[in-house]
Amino acid sequence: MTMLDHIQRLQFDDKPAAEALLLSFLREALALDVRSVMLRPLAVSLNSFNGFLTLSDGRELFFKTHTEPDGVLSEYYQAEQLAQAGYPVLQPVFQSTQAGQQLLVYEGVREPSGFDVAWAIENGDATHAQSLARAQQATDVRLAEIYADTLAVQTSEQAASAPVHQLFSHRLTAGRLTRFYGETGAEIEIALPDGERVMMADVLRACWTVNGQQYAQTLAEMIERAKRVLAPAQGGPAIIGHGDAHNGNVFFRGADQLLLYFDPAFAGRHHPLMDLVKPLFHNVFAMWMYFPREKHAALSLSLRRDGSAWHVEHDYTLPPIREMFLESKLQHVLMPTLVSLRQRGLLRPDWREYLKAALMCCPLLTMNLADQQRFPPAISLLGLVMAVEMGAESQGVRSRVDSALDRASQSL
Q1: What is residue 256's DSSP assignment?
Q2: Which of 173, 191, 360, 409 has the maximum number of C-beta atoms within 10 A of its C-beta?
Q3: In angstroms, rounded to a whole number, what is the distance separating the alpha carbons of residues 139 and 135?
Q4: pTM flag (> 0.85)
Protein backbone atom coordinates (compact mmCIF):
# COMPACT_ATOMS: atom_id res chain seq x y z
CA MET A 1 0.00 0.00 0.00
CA THR A 2 1.39 3.40 -0.98
CA MET A 3 1.23 6.43 1.28
CA LEU A 4 -1.58 7.92 -0.83
CA ASP A 5 -3.59 4.69 -0.54
CA HIS A 6 -3.11 4.86 3.22
CA ILE A 7 -4.18 8.51 3.34
CA GLN A 8 -7.29 7.75 1.28
CA ARG A 9 -8.44 5.11 3.77
CA LEU A 10 -7.31 6.99 6.89
CA GLN A 11 -9.19 10.20 6.00
CA PHE A 12 -12.51 8.71 7.14
CA ASP A 13 -11.24 7.35 10.48
CA ASP A 14 -8.49 9.73 11.59
CA LYS A 15 -8.55 12.92 9.53
CA PRO A 16 -5.80 14.76 11.49
CA ALA A 17 -3.41 11.82 11.07
CA ALA A 18 -4.22 11.61 7.36
CA GLU A 19 -3.61 15.34 6.97
CA ALA A 20 -0.25 15.08 8.74
CA LEU A 21 0.87 12.33 6.36
CA LEU A 22 -0.34 14.29 3.36
CA LEU A 23 1.51 17.42 4.50
CA SER A 24 4.76 15.45 4.57
CA PHE A 25 4.05 13.96 1.15
CA LEU A 26 3.33 17.33 -0.46
CA ARG A 27 6.47 18.90 0.93
CA GLU A 28 8.60 16.01 -0.28
CA ALA A 29 7.01 14.90 -3.59
CA LEU A 30 6.11 18.34 -4.95
CA ALA A 31 8.71 20.37 -3.07
CA LEU A 32 5.99 22.81 -2.07
CA ASP A 33 6.26 25.09 0.94
CA VAL A 34 2.92 23.97 2.34
CA ARG A 35 1.77 25.48 5.62
CA SER A 36 -1.37 23.39 6.14
CA VAL A 37 -3.75 20.96 4.44
CA MET A 38 -7.46 20.26 4.87
CA LEU A 39 -8.89 16.99 3.60
CA ARG A 40 -12.56 16.74 2.62
CA PRO A 41 -13.71 13.15 3.21
CA LEU A 42 -16.68 12.87 0.84
CA ALA A 43 -19.10 10.14 -0.14
CA VAL A 44 -17.84 10.41 -3.72
CA SER A 45 -14.25 9.69 -2.59
CA LEU A 46 -14.42 5.93 -3.04
CA ASN A 47 -10.91 5.63 -4.49
CA SER A 48 -9.67 9.19 -4.10
CA PHE A 49 -9.26 12.14 -1.80
CA ASN A 50 -9.32 15.90 -2.22
CA GLY A 51 -9.19 19.10 -0.26
CA PHE A 52 -7.36 22.38 0.12
CA LEU A 53 -3.78 23.30 0.95
CA THR A 54 -2.36 26.64 2.04
CA LEU A 55 1.13 27.70 1.00
CA SER A 56 3.44 29.73 3.22
CA ASP A 57 2.65 32.82 1.12
CA GLY A 58 -1.05 32.48 1.95
CA ARG A 59 -2.23 31.06 -1.41
CA GLU A 60 -5.00 28.50 -1.09
CA LEU A 61 -4.98 25.69 -3.67
CA PHE A 62 -7.24 22.71 -4.38
CA PHE A 63 -5.82 19.18 -4.70
CA LYS A 64 -7.23 15.87 -5.93
CA THR A 65 -5.82 12.39 -6.38
CA HIS A 66 -7.12 9.01 -7.51
CA THR A 67 -5.62 6.00 -5.76
CA GLU A 68 -5.52 2.57 -7.38
CA PRO A 69 -4.01 -0.07 -5.05
CA ASP A 70 -3.86 -2.68 -7.84
CA GLY A 71 -2.59 -0.28 -10.49
CA VAL A 72 -0.30 -1.44 -13.27
CA LEU A 73 0.37 1.94 -14.89
CA SER A 74 3.68 3.77 -14.60
CA GLU A 75 2.34 7.28 -15.22
CA TYR A 76 -1.00 9.07 -15.01
CA TYR A 77 -2.75 12.30 -16.12
CA GLN A 78 -3.11 13.94 -19.53
CA ALA A 79 -4.77 17.27 -18.75
CA GLU A 80 -2.93 19.08 -21.55
CA GLN A 81 -4.06 16.51 -24.14
CA LEU A 82 -7.68 17.05 -23.08
CA ALA A 83 -7.36 20.83 -23.36
CA GLN A 84 -5.88 20.57 -26.85
CA ALA A 85 -8.79 18.35 -27.88
CA GLY A 86 -11.28 21.02 -26.82
CA TYR A 87 -12.39 19.84 -23.38
CA PRO A 88 -13.20 22.53 -20.81
CA VAL A 89 -10.69 21.11 -18.34
CA LEU A 90 -9.12 22.66 -15.27
CA GLN A 91 -5.35 22.73 -15.67
CA PRO A 92 -3.13 21.86 -12.69
CA VAL A 93 -0.51 24.28 -11.42
CA PHE A 94 1.51 21.48 -9.78
CA GLN A 95 1.43 17.75 -10.43
CA SER A 96 2.99 14.46 -9.45
CA THR A 97 2.24 11.79 -12.05
CA GLN A 98 4.26 8.73 -11.05
CA ALA A 99 2.35 5.62 -9.98
CA GLY A 100 1.73 5.64 -6.26
CA GLN A 101 2.42 9.38 -6.09
CA GLN A 102 -0.15 10.76 -8.56
CA LEU A 103 -1.68 14.00 -7.35
CA LEU A 104 -2.76 17.24 -9.01
CA VAL A 105 -2.89 20.70 -7.45
CA TYR A 106 -5.13 23.45 -8.88
CA GLU A 107 -5.76 27.10 -8.24
CA GLY A 108 -8.41 27.49 -5.54
CA VAL A 109 -11.79 26.18 -6.70
CA ARG A 110 -14.99 26.92 -4.82
CA GLU A 111 -17.60 25.73 -7.34
CA PRO A 112 -19.50 22.60 -6.26
CA SER A 113 -18.96 19.33 -8.03
CA GLY A 114 -21.63 17.96 -10.32
CA PHE A 115 -21.98 15.16 -7.77
CA ASP A 116 -22.90 17.51 -4.93
CA VAL A 117 -25.36 19.51 -7.02
CA ALA A 118 -27.08 16.37 -8.34
CA TRP A 119 -27.36 14.85 -4.86
CA ALA A 120 -28.95 18.05 -3.54
CA ILE A 121 -31.47 17.94 -6.40
CA GLU A 122 -32.24 14.29 -5.72
CA ASN A 123 -32.98 15.25 -2.12
CA GLY A 124 -35.43 18.00 -2.98
CA ASP A 125 -33.37 21.14 -3.60
CA ALA A 126 -34.34 22.00 -7.17
CA THR A 127 -32.47 25.34 -7.21
CA HIS A 128 -30.03 24.26 -9.91
CA ALA A 129 -32.07 21.50 -11.58
CA GLN A 130 -32.74 23.29 -14.85
CA SER A 131 -29.31 24.89 -15.15
CA LEU A 132 -27.57 21.58 -14.42
CA ALA A 133 -29.68 19.85 -17.07
CA ARG A 134 -28.81 22.54 -19.62
CA ALA A 135 -25.12 22.32 -18.71
CA GLN A 136 -25.17 18.52 -18.98
CA GLN A 137 -26.85 18.55 -22.37
CA ALA A 138 -24.51 21.22 -23.76
CA THR A 139 -21.50 19.33 -22.40
CA ASP A 140 -22.70 16.09 -23.97
CA VAL A 141 -23.34 17.71 -27.36
CA ARG A 142 -19.79 19.07 -27.26
CA LEU A 143 -18.46 15.70 -26.12
CA ALA A 144 -19.90 13.96 -29.20
CA GLU A 145 -18.23 16.62 -31.36
CA ILE A 146 -14.87 16.02 -29.66
CA TYR A 147 -15.27 12.29 -30.21
CA ALA A 148 -15.90 12.88 -33.91
CA ASP A 149 -13.01 15.36 -34.21
CA THR A 150 -10.45 13.14 -32.47
CA LEU A 151 -11.58 9.75 -33.79
CA ALA A 152 -8.71 7.74 -35.28
CA VAL A 153 -7.64 4.12 -35.59
CA GLN A 154 -4.96 2.84 -33.24
CA THR A 155 -2.94 -0.37 -33.16
CA SER A 156 -3.36 -3.11 -30.57
CA GLU A 157 -0.06 -2.03 -29.00
CA GLN A 158 -1.27 1.55 -28.66
CA ALA A 159 -4.61 0.40 -27.29
CA ALA A 160 -2.95 -1.78 -24.66
CA SER A 161 -1.22 1.21 -23.06
CA ALA A 162 -4.40 3.28 -22.59
CA PRO A 163 -4.80 4.34 -18.93
CA VAL A 164 -8.58 3.74 -19.02
CA HIS A 165 -8.04 -0.03 -18.83
CA GLN A 166 -7.00 0.49 -15.21
CA LEU A 167 -10.70 1.00 -14.41
CA PHE A 168 -11.97 -2.14 -16.14
CA SER A 169 -9.74 -4.92 -17.48
CA HIS A 170 -6.95 -4.42 -14.94
CA ARG A 171 -9.42 -4.55 -12.06
CA LEU A 172 -10.54 -7.93 -13.36
CA THR A 173 -7.06 -9.35 -13.91
CA ALA A 174 -4.50 -7.44 -11.83
CA GLY A 175 -5.60 -8.33 -8.32
CA ARG A 176 -8.69 -6.37 -7.30
CA LEU A 177 -11.23 -9.07 -8.23
CA THR A 178 -9.28 -11.64 -6.23
CA ARG A 179 -8.65 -9.29 -3.33
CA PHE A 180 -12.36 -8.51 -3.03
CA TYR A 181 -13.90 -11.93 -3.65
CA GLY A 182 -11.12 -14.53 -3.41
CA GLU A 183 -9.48 -16.83 -5.93
CA THR A 184 -12.49 -19.12 -6.23
CA GLY A 185 -15.07 -17.44 -4.01
CA ALA A 186 -14.65 -20.20 -1.45
CA GLU A 187 -12.53 -17.94 0.77
CA ILE A 188 -14.92 -15.00 1.15
CA GLU A 189 -18.30 -14.85 2.91
CA ILE A 190 -21.06 -12.37 2.18
CA ALA A 191 -24.05 -11.59 4.41
CA LEU A 192 -27.59 -11.81 2.99
CA PRO A 193 -30.59 -9.70 4.05
CA ASP A 194 -32.24 -12.66 5.81
CA GLY A 195 -29.28 -12.98 8.17
CA GLU A 196 -27.70 -15.95 6.44
CA ARG A 197 -24.12 -15.93 5.24
CA VAL A 198 -23.00 -17.64 2.07
CA MET A 199 -19.71 -18.06 0.29
CA MET A 200 -19.03 -15.86 -2.71
CA ALA A 201 -18.71 -19.07 -4.72
CA ASP A 202 -22.46 -19.59 -4.26
CA VAL A 203 -23.15 -16.03 -5.39
CA LEU A 204 -20.94 -16.39 -8.46
CA ARG A 205 -22.76 -19.49 -9.70
CA ALA A 206 -26.30 -18.31 -8.93
CA CYS A 207 -28.90 -17.98 -11.71
CA TRP A 208 -30.74 -14.69 -11.30
CA THR A 209 -34.28 -13.43 -11.71
CA VAL A 210 -34.64 -9.76 -10.76
CA ASN A 211 -38.00 -7.99 -10.76
CA GLY A 212 -39.14 -10.40 -13.46
CA GLN A 213 -35.93 -10.00 -15.50
CA GLN A 214 -34.36 -13.38 -16.21
CA TYR A 215 -30.64 -13.82 -16.78
CA ALA A 216 -29.13 -16.86 -18.46
CA GLN A 217 -25.55 -16.19 -17.34
CA THR A 218 -24.03 -16.49 -13.88
CA LEU A 219 -21.75 -13.82 -12.51
CA ALA A 220 -18.82 -16.20 -12.86
CA GLU A 221 -19.59 -16.55 -16.57
CA MET A 222 -19.99 -12.79 -16.98
CA ILE A 223 -16.62 -12.19 -15.34
CA GLU A 224 -14.80 -14.67 -17.56
CA ARG A 225 -16.45 -13.21 -20.64
CA ALA A 226 -15.54 -9.68 -19.55
CA LYS A 227 -11.89 -10.66 -19.18
CA ARG A 228 -11.89 -11.71 -22.84
CA VAL A 229 -14.05 -8.93 -24.25
CA LEU A 230 -12.20 -6.15 -22.40
CA ALA A 231 -8.66 -7.34 -23.16
CA PRO A 232 -6.65 -4.12 -23.60
CA ALA A 233 -4.67 -5.08 -26.71
CA GLN A 234 -7.43 -4.54 -29.26
CA GLY A 235 -6.76 -2.20 -32.12
CA GLY A 236 -9.58 -0.10 -33.55
CA PRO A 237 -11.30 3.24 -33.12
CA ALA A 238 -10.12 5.57 -30.40
CA ILE A 239 -10.89 9.10 -29.26
CA ILE A 240 -9.24 11.46 -26.79
CA GLY A 241 -11.27 11.16 -23.64
CA HIS A 242 -11.26 11.85 -19.91
CA GLY A 243 -11.90 8.19 -19.09
CA ASP A 244 -13.39 8.80 -15.63
CA ALA A 245 -15.80 11.71 -16.21
CA HIS A 246 -18.41 10.93 -13.57
CA ASN A 247 -19.96 13.78 -11.60
CA GLY A 248 -17.29 13.68 -8.91
CA ASN A 249 -14.74 14.76 -11.51
CA VAL A 250 -16.55 17.78 -12.91
CA PHE A 251 -17.23 21.15 -11.35
CA PHE A 252 -20.55 22.88 -11.95
CA ARG A 253 -20.06 26.55 -12.79
CA GLY A 254 -23.67 27.65 -12.39
CA ALA A 255 -23.26 31.24 -13.60
CA ASP A 256 -22.01 29.94 -16.96
CA GLN A 257 -24.06 26.71 -16.96
CA LEU A 258 -20.77 24.93 -17.58
CA LEU A 259 -19.35 21.59 -16.49
CA LEU A 260 -15.59 21.83 -16.01
CA TYR A 261 -13.58 18.59 -16.08
CA PHE A 262 -10.76 17.87 -13.65
CA ASP A 263 -8.78 14.90 -12.26
CA PRO A 264 -7.89 13.32 -15.65
CA ALA A 265 -6.09 10.38 -14.02
CA PHE A 266 -7.15 8.01 -16.81
CA ALA A 267 -7.31 10.40 -19.74
CA GLY A 268 -5.83 9.48 -23.08
CA ARG A 269 -6.70 7.83 -26.35
CA HIS A 270 -9.13 4.93 -25.98
CA HIS A 271 -12.34 3.46 -27.38
CA PRO A 272 -15.26 5.93 -27.15
CA LEU A 273 -17.52 3.35 -25.51
CA MET A 274 -14.99 2.95 -22.69
CA ASP A 275 -15.09 6.70 -22.19
CA LEU A 276 -18.85 6.59 -21.56
CA VAL A 277 -18.91 3.80 -18.99
CA LYS A 278 -18.11 5.67 -15.78
CA PRO A 279 -20.60 8.53 -16.28
CA LEU A 280 -23.25 6.13 -17.57
CA PHE A 281 -23.09 4.02 -14.44
CA HIS A 282 -21.96 6.30 -11.64
CA ASN A 283 -24.07 9.34 -12.53
CA VAL A 284 -27.19 7.22 -13.02
CA PHE A 285 -27.29 3.93 -11.11
CA ALA A 286 -24.75 4.20 -8.28
CA MET A 287 -26.15 6.30 -5.44
CA TRP A 288 -26.51 3.18 -3.28
CA MET A 289 -22.72 2.87 -3.50
CA TYR A 290 -22.06 6.41 -2.28
CA PHE A 291 -24.82 6.60 0.32
CA PRO A 292 -25.43 3.00 1.43
CA ARG A 293 -27.09 3.83 4.76
CA GLU A 294 -29.45 6.42 3.32
CA LYS A 295 -30.45 4.23 0.39
CA HIS A 296 -30.84 1.21 2.66
CA ALA A 297 -33.33 3.10 4.80
CA ALA A 298 -35.55 3.70 1.76
CA LEU A 299 -35.07 0.30 0.11
CA SER A 300 -37.46 -2.63 0.03
CA LEU A 301 -35.68 -5.80 -1.12
CA SER A 302 -36.44 -9.49 -0.78
CA LEU A 303 -34.53 -12.61 -1.74
CA ARG A 304 -35.83 -16.10 -2.31
CA ARG A 305 -33.32 -18.87 -3.00
CA ASP A 306 -34.15 -22.20 -4.57
CA GLY A 307 -30.83 -23.97 -4.88
CA SER A 308 -28.77 -21.98 -7.38
CA ALA A 309 -31.84 -20.01 -8.51
CA TRP A 310 -31.93 -16.61 -6.80
CA HIS A 311 -35.10 -14.49 -7.07
CA VAL A 312 -34.78 -10.83 -6.06
CA GLU A 313 -37.50 -8.21 -5.85
CA HIS A 314 -36.60 -4.61 -5.05
CA ASP A 315 -37.97 -1.09 -5.46
CA TYR A 316 -34.75 0.79 -6.23
CA THR A 317 -35.66 3.17 -9.06
CA LEU A 318 -34.00 6.13 -10.73
CA PRO A 319 -35.00 9.62 -9.56
CA PRO A 320 -35.67 12.19 -12.32
CA ILE A 321 -32.20 13.74 -12.05
CA ARG A 322 -30.64 10.32 -12.75
CA GLU A 323 -32.97 9.77 -15.69
CA MET A 324 -31.83 13.15 -17.01
CA PHE A 325 -28.19 12.07 -16.95
CA LEU A 326 -29.03 8.79 -18.68
CA GLU A 327 -31.15 10.43 -21.34
CA SER A 328 -28.56 13.10 -22.09
CA LYS A 329 -25.73 10.61 -22.53
CA LEU A 330 -27.98 8.34 -24.60
CA GLN A 331 -29.36 11.00 -26.94
CA HIS A 332 -26.40 13.33 -27.29
CA VAL A 333 -23.38 11.03 -27.09
CA LEU A 334 -24.02 7.28 -27.34
CA MET A 335 -26.46 7.30 -30.26
CA PRO A 336 -24.52 9.72 -32.49
CA THR A 337 -21.26 7.97 -31.66
CA LEU A 338 -22.64 4.56 -32.62
CA VAL A 339 -23.97 5.99 -35.89
CA SER A 340 -20.62 7.66 -36.63
CA LEU A 341 -18.68 4.47 -35.95
CA ARG A 342 -21.02 2.45 -38.17
CA GLN A 343 -20.77 4.96 -41.02
CA ARG A 344 -16.98 4.73 -40.89
CA GLY A 345 -17.00 0.94 -40.72
CA LEU A 346 -15.53 1.02 -37.20
CA LEU A 347 -18.44 -0.25 -35.09
CA ARG A 348 -17.48 -3.56 -33.53
CA PRO A 349 -20.24 -6.20 -33.93
CA ASP A 350 -20.20 -6.90 -30.20
CA TRP A 351 -20.36 -3.23 -29.16
CA ARG A 352 -23.22 -3.90 -26.77
CA GLU A 353 -21.47 -6.83 -25.09
CA TYR A 354 -18.29 -4.74 -24.86
CA LEU A 355 -20.08 -1.82 -23.23
CA LYS A 356 -22.03 -4.01 -20.81
CA ALA A 357 -18.91 -5.91 -19.75
CA ALA A 358 -17.28 -2.64 -18.72
CA LEU A 359 -20.48 -1.43 -17.04
CA MET A 360 -20.48 -4.60 -14.94
CA CYS A 361 -17.08 -3.69 -13.51
CA CYS A 362 -18.49 -0.51 -11.94
CA PRO A 363 -20.82 -2.04 -9.33
CA LEU A 364 -18.70 -5.16 -8.88
CA LEU A 365 -15.20 -3.70 -8.59
CA THR A 366 -15.34 -0.05 -7.57
CA MET A 367 -15.96 -1.12 -3.97
CA ASN A 368 -15.94 -4.51 -2.26
CA LEU A 369 -19.57 -5.64 -2.04
CA ALA A 370 -18.59 -8.21 0.61
CA ASP A 371 -17.41 -5.42 2.93
CA GLN A 372 -19.91 -5.68 5.77
CA GLN A 373 -18.61 -2.56 7.50
CA ARG A 374 -19.47 -0.40 4.49
CA PHE A 375 -22.56 -2.07 3.06
CA PRO A 376 -25.68 -3.38 4.80
CA PRO A 377 -26.56 -6.86 3.45
CA ALA A 378 -29.47 -5.57 1.35
CA ILE A 379 -27.21 -3.00 -0.31
CA SER A 380 -24.54 -5.64 -0.97
CA LEU A 381 -27.17 -7.74 -2.68
CA LEU A 382 -28.44 -4.73 -4.62
CA GLY A 383 -24.88 -4.14 -5.83
CA LEU A 384 -24.63 -7.74 -7.02
CA VAL A 385 -27.98 -7.35 -8.77
CA MET A 386 -26.65 -4.22 -10.48
CA ALA A 387 -23.59 -6.14 -11.65
CA VAL A 388 -25.86 -8.78 -13.16
CA GLU A 389 -28.10 -6.18 -14.83
CA MET A 390 -25.12 -4.34 -16.26
CA GLY A 391 -23.24 -7.43 -17.40
CA ALA A 392 -25.90 -9.70 -18.90
CA GLU A 393 -28.89 -9.36 -21.18
CA SER A 394 -32.27 -9.44 -19.44
CA GLN A 395 -34.86 -11.81 -20.85
CA GLY A 396 -38.60 -11.20 -20.71
CA VAL A 397 -38.89 -8.00 -18.67
CA ARG A 398 -36.13 -5.64 -19.78
CA SER A 399 -33.83 -3.98 -17.27
CA ARG A 400 -33.48 -0.19 -17.29
CA VAL A 401 -30.04 -0.34 -18.84
CA ASP A 402 -31.15 -2.82 -21.52
CA SER A 403 -34.17 -0.76 -22.46
CA ALA A 404 -31.85 2.24 -22.92
CA LEU A 405 -29.44 0.21 -25.07
CA ASP A 406 -32.38 -1.14 -27.06
CA ARG A 407 -33.17 2.44 -28.05
CA ALA A 408 -29.53 3.01 -28.96
CA SER A 409 -29.59 -0.11 -31.15
CA GLN A 410 -32.68 1.18 -32.95
CA SER A 411 -30.75 4.32 -33.95
CA LEU A 412 -28.42 2.22 -36.12
Answers
A1: G
A2: 360
A3: 6
A4: yes
